[in-house]
Please model this.
Amino acid sequence: MRPLEVTVSSGGKFHAYHIARAAQQAGYLRRFITTIYDRYETGIDRSKVRQIMLPELLGMAIQKLPTTSSVSLSYLVRDNLFDLMARRYLSGGDILNVFNHFGLYSMRQARRLGIKTIVERSSAHPVVHHRILSEEYARYGLRYSRANAWLFGKHEQEYAEADAIAVPSEFVWRTMVEQGVPEARLRRVHFGFEPGHFRPMPGVKTDDVFRVMFAGSVSLQKGVQYLLEAFRRLNLPNAELVLVGGSFPDSRAFLPQYEGLYRHIPFVPHPRLAEVYNTASVFVLPSLQDGFGMVVYEAAACGLPVIITENVGADIRDGQDGFVVPIRDPDALADRLLRLYRDENLRREMGRSAWEYVQQFTWEAYHRQVIAHYEELAGYA
Model:
């Protein structure tokens, strides 16, 4: 039986490089179409890479516009332009693996060539996603961009035309089924982390400060506003809240009222993120919707107890590895933070439990899942 030929296409970083690595290690990678290529980081054969930079550059320029709609508008322009340009590189093979909202036109080209298609969906179903964020924007008197509605329509068309849809968590799976996506087309592929990099580092934390850490985009979607409110209500002595990640334009709706309450680190290179995790006492991801949340596993792998919401897809055991709370609930966040603040033994026990539990969720395990789904889709299994 001849090796499969797989094309991976993504107009952004995400976990596309892990998919391409999985295909290359199996001898299946035909082509990797991307906006960003770094051979030292990706380890992917350069001869198989087709780099398309223009969409990413245009998207970055649009995001600098002084409007809360700039991010959504940049996605609309970037993603569609990438999709239109990427389809020119499809000429054969067995499987095309695209990312949601980057792939509709490429998928249609693939179908004309007799190529099977898999679309990656890493967030809640667009209807659920749109409803949650529209509600949150309304709470702050903001208008949710019409560009989002157009993109979500494209998402749903991709689901209708794909042979398979890869989702990373039970949360995403559930929202897809609730919105009528057939379960037979869904494939659960659990994301991972790099255990050799994300690990406890004794001696990095040299103080006794109770340090609460968040990592991700500082935005309404990530629920940072509720974490800030919880931390403000607690007013704990010898405690610090650290927000790691760039600020979205919509953060201007809530950040000013919490000025002086937190320390903001706009950017940390990924290789240094493990060290930053190791300076913390607890990690919190209070997202209103987050299909997976790889930062949760990274933090847990560094020995931190974690607090997430019910709408974060990470597989965390409530009361063992940390806590799971409802969305939009600063009281619940404050209660769990206070428990961990008061009980150093609980922090230590939950951190150890979290570390042990997430060791099963490595990128190596993810690669095996990806290849198994390719072979099943192609009839090789």
Notes: The chain has two domains: 6-192+362-377, 210-358. The mean pLDDT is 93.
